[in-house]
Specification:
Shape: elongated
Strand order of the largest sheet: 1-2
Pfam families: FumaraseC_C, Lyase_1
Number of strands: 8
Number of helices: 18
Keywords: Lyase
Protein name: Aspartate ammonia-lyase
């Protein structure tokens, strides 16, 4: 193997012997040494599947030679199997619309196809990145299609992680259902609730987000592939648009359909904004849930300590025996990152002009990375935090019994003003609500025992015993 020289419209360049990419990729690497971050695997997979499907359909339509198409398919299958990942080298901050990454894909597949056919890399007369691998395609329809497919691939594990998290919250909710604690609103004492109901509420919230994300992703099934450069299908076979989407549906197992107007599918980033928005919405509730768990675990001596999160690592470099809610903190950081990505996606999506949005590389990375980090974070959060939570029932009961908000249950029986006076007296004197009510003759012992029954007060209406 020796270095090779390639030529493009700007001149000649020498490529390393081991490079499967070509001259256009090399120029992009030199032009965009920005972040050191390359394309995500799901994005490479999506682009490669598009190339594989296009090669098959274009060969069937006699647009490219069958042996060339078969070699491109073989090269694509190798990439899909995990080979040549080090050859996709263009920074995510690159030429607008993703042309540099697109040519990186085209060149790698062309040069590997050449080897499969027994030719040297760079012998583009036999297999050309533009004329064969990219036949009937454009960055402008390939990249938005690849974002759709990549997000659909990435959504599946996230939805699985959400389902598993929902089940873990439900299991803990049922385990903790007998435990009565003080509710809190505005971080002040409120009426009694059940610890289990709090966890069952978290399960419901997570399940609802699963549905929102799933619904948002359905828009991604509509593909503008076949629109070519501007949505008109220039340089494509009349049957190509429908057949290439059918081939992609066969390869992916997804119910993909051609866009009724490719120009609209290529211009508008609205489906990506909708999906990103559903992830941001999830992230916001994850921050709240993680914060709740940190509060309930605060202490151990000077905080609430109603639950104990599993200690997973020492929490201080100077304070021995300290353990921190690190999984909740990690999840919150991930959620903040997803919210930031959503803002970037919104800004990038409005930055298109006429027939093209040139900010697609940013949208691709931020959307797919949001899926990745949320999936990983939720998987770890569930396994190493939620499933190991222990309740502190005595602490919970003590807070419930000592809460001034128990006076709320007296309202229907002694009136709001009397109840407020009792609460004020209790706070001023430190005496119990029960003692003050009895002293003032507002209720009897028997009445108080029934009214201030913590078990009944904290039970949801639908779970209350039916009257005979």
């Amino acid at each position: 193997m020796h270095p090779r020289t390639e030529r493009d419209s700007m001149g000649e360049r020498t490529l390393d012997a081991g490079a499967y990419y070509g001259i256009q990729t090399l120029r992009a690497v030199e032009n965009f040494p920005i972040s050191g971050i390359g394309p995500l695997p799901d994005f490479v997979r999506a682009c490669t599947l598009i190339k594989r499907a296009a090669a098959r359909v274009n060969a069937d339509l006699a647009c490219i030679p069958k042996d060339v198409a078969q070699a491109i398919i073989g090269a694509s299958d190798e990439v899909l199997a995990g080979r040549w990942s080090e050859q996709f080298v263009v920074d995510i901050f690159q030429a607008g619309a993703g042309t540099s990454h697109h040519m990186n894909i085209n060149e790698v597949l062309a040069n590997r196809a050449l080897e499969i056919l027994g030719h040297a890399r760079g012998d583009y007369k036999r297999v050309n990145p533009n004329d064969h691998v990219n036949y009937g395609q454009s960055t402008n329809d390939v990249i938005p299609t690849a974002i759709r497919l990549g997000a659909l691939f990435a959504s599946a594990p996230l939805l699985e992680a959400l389902s598993a998290l929902q089940q873990s919250f439900e299991a803990k909710g049922n385990e903790f259902l007998p435990i009565v604690k003080s509710g809190r609103t505005h971080l002040q004492d409120a009426v009694p609730v059940r610890l289990g109901d709090e966890f069952l509420a978290y399960a419901q919230i997570v399940g609802e987000h699963h549905g929102r994300i799933e619904r948002a992703c359905r828009e991604l099934l509509v593909l503008g592939l076949g629109g070519s450069a501007a949505g008109t299908g220039l340089n494509t076979h009349p049957q190509y648009r429908v057949r290439v989407v059918d081939e992609l549906a066969r390869l992916t197992g997804l119910p993909l359909i051609p866009a009724p107007r490719p120009m609209a599918a290529m211009q508008s980033m609205a489906p990506f904004v909708a999906v990103s928005g559903s992830l941001r919405n999830l992230a916001q509730d994850l921050v709240k849930i993680a914060g709740d768990l940190r509060l309930m675990d605060s202490g151990p001596k000077t905080g609430l300590r109603e639950i104990e999160l599993p200690p997973v690592q020492p929490g201080s470099s100077i304070m021995p025996g300290k353990y921190n809610p690190v999984l909740c903190e990690m999840l919150t950081m991930v959620a903040f990152q997803v919210m930031g990505y959503d803002q970037a996606i919104a800004l990038a999506s409005q930055a298109g002009q006429l027939e093209l949005n040139v900010m697609m590389p940013l949208i691709a990375y931020d959307l797919l990375h949001s899926f990745t980090i949320l999936t990983n974070a939720l998987t770890v959060f569930r396994a190493r935090c939620i499933e190991g939570i222990q309740a502190q029932p005595e602490r919970c009961l003590a807070y419930a019994e000592g809460s001034i908000a128990l006076v709320t249950a007296l309202n229907p029986h002694i009136g709001y003003l009397n109840a407020a006076a009792v609460a004020k007296a209790s706070l001023q004197t430190g005496r119990s609500l029960r003692e003050i009510v009895l002293e003032r003759g507002l209720l009897t012992e028997v009445q108080l025992a029934e009214i201030l029954d913590l078990e009944a007060m904290s039970r949801l209406p639908e779970t209350q015993p039916k009257a005979e």
